[in-house]
Amino acid sequence: MQQNASSTTQQKSADRSTVPPAQSIITDITTSSLEPTEPTEPIDLTTTGEATELPTASTPGEDDSLVVQSLHGLGSPLLPAPIQPPTPPLTPPPAYSRKYVAGLFTFEQLSIFLIYPSTIAVGSLISIVSPPESYFGLRTNFFNVFFVKNGWFWTTITFMVHCIRLRISKPSKLVIRYAFATLWWFLFTQWFFGAPIMDRVFLGTGGVCFVNDPEAVPGDERKVHDSWSSFGCRHVKGEWAGGHDISGHSFLLTHASLFLWFELLPVIMERGPLLRQINTKIVFVTLALWWWMLLMTGIYFHTFTEKVTGWLCGIAEWAIIYILLPGNRTLTTMVGVPGV
Ligand SMILES: CCCCCCCC/C=C\CCCCCCCC(=O)SCCNC(=O)CCNC(=O)[C@H](O)C(C)(C)COP(=O)(O)O
Ligand SMILES: Nc1ncnc2c1ncn2[C@@H]1O[C@H](COP(=O)(O)O)[C@@H](OP(=O)(O)O)[C@H]1O
Question: Looking at 72, 162, 225, 249, which residue is catalytic?
């Protein structure tokens, strides 16, 4: 079995150009001999290497070591000769299992994940204690109008800047992950068979669009307009009030940031030349701006629960694609995992 695995690895890797350190190859192959067919741990998205093309070996006799190498984000290495592990360990190396917190996250993933609820919490706290007078407290501030209000556009541009320098073999998997992220943003904020999801929640919880009727009797100028979306309400210069108004900014800024972070994570973990490229710096600038604007949303806008529900909806798609799916080999094969 081990002999077969090595020769198949050689065959499949003929067109690859990267040679990972021998130690990591040995570690991976030794680990693989202990792997069950379905991975019991999530796929490590923080490791480096091209990992978007997952081998689908699942029947007995197929190349399991190759699967595990790819699942670990190493890609198929160019092996000059079959490498036999000296003595396979009886338990997986501690570095493999130790990395996971609560069986779901690596330490790095958890740290990134926690940035956003903490930012909303700190912002909300500042808003209660003493919100400072600031240009960022204006809805019309340049950064809000030009960047956040076109937030998915800028996230797309940033993602493209990140992608164009990668040397992965299956860009289609990148596009699929981007398409899922875009679809969730679109359904949630733009259109969901009519009004987008966030507006349906608002209307479903008793929200209405109030407009001023100048012809009404004084004191009774406010009347309900039958707008079925926040966009429609804005169009008639109405005021969208009453229901649970999920924070669209908390949603978008969290959703976009987690998407960019998790696509960038292999570059960060590799700590190689890609990390120093201008492309990486551009991603960091976008992430910094999104973080700052989320803090401003936390301080100046919405109620605490509206920001929390915005954040919860913002983590939904990310949790499926980057946290839950990596526990399932077949589904992960569909969307791939980020790589360099
Ligand atoms: C090897 C290279 C691979 C590259 C991979 C990239 C994949 C690209 C694939 C295809 C390209 C398709 C290009 C599609 C472009 C789509 C870009 C856009 O998203 S255009 C839409 C821009 N609109 C926004 O960004 C609006 C964002 N704003 C909002 O959602 C809301 O205003 C709000 C939620 C922020 C606030 O809500 P409000 O009710 O308070 O306004
Ligand atoms: N960080 C921020 N900077 C400026 N305005 C913000 C903001 N976060 C939210 N807002 C504004 O607060 C309102 C509700 O935002 P949302 O529901 O998207 O979180 C929106 O007002 P407008 O609809 O008048 O633009 C939005 O522009």
Answer: 249
Contact 223, 237 (CB under 8 A): no
Strand duo 208-212 + 239-241: pairing: antiparallel
Q: Which atom belonging to ligand 2 lies closest to the Cα atom of 293? A: 1
Q: For the chain, state the CA radius of gyration.
A: 24
Cα gap 265→150, rounded to integer Å:
24
Q: Determine which helix (DSSP H) or strand (DSSP E) holds 101, and give its type and residue range.
A: strand 100-101
Q: How far apart are CA 279 and CA 340, in angstroms?
A: 13
Asked whether residue 189 is domain-assigned, the answer is yes
Domain span at residue 321? 107-207+242-330
The answer to whether the Cα torsion of 297, 191, 315, 179 is positive or negative is: negative
Q: Provide the domain count of the chain.
A: 1
Which pLDDT score, from 0 to 100, does residue 266 have?
95
Position 21: which residue type?
P
State the complex-level ipTM.
Answer: 0.89
Tell me the β-bridge partners of 212: 222
In a domain, 36, yes or no: no
Q: How far apart are CA 276 and CA 165, in angstroms?
A: 12
Closest alpha carbon to 7 in 61, 68, 59, 81: 81
pTM of the model: 0.77
Neighbours of 35 (CB within 10 A): 18
Q: Give yes or no: 302 in active site.
A: yes
How crowded is residue 144: how many other Cβ atoms within 10 Å of its Cβ? 18
Assigned domain for 311 exists: yes
Spatial distance between the Cα atoms of 249 and 152, rounded to a whole number of angstroms: 11
Residue 127 lies in a domain: yes
pLDDT at 48 over 80: no
Q: Which residue's structure tokens are 């990596």? A: 326
Interval between CA 337 and ligand 1 midpoint (Å): 22
139 CA distance to ligand 2 centroid (A)?
6
Residue owning the nearest CA to atom 4 of ligand 1: 160
- pLDDT band per the 50, 70, 90 thresholds, residue 263: very high
Token pair for residue 278?
A: 């201008």
Would you state the pLDDT for residue 45?
A: 56
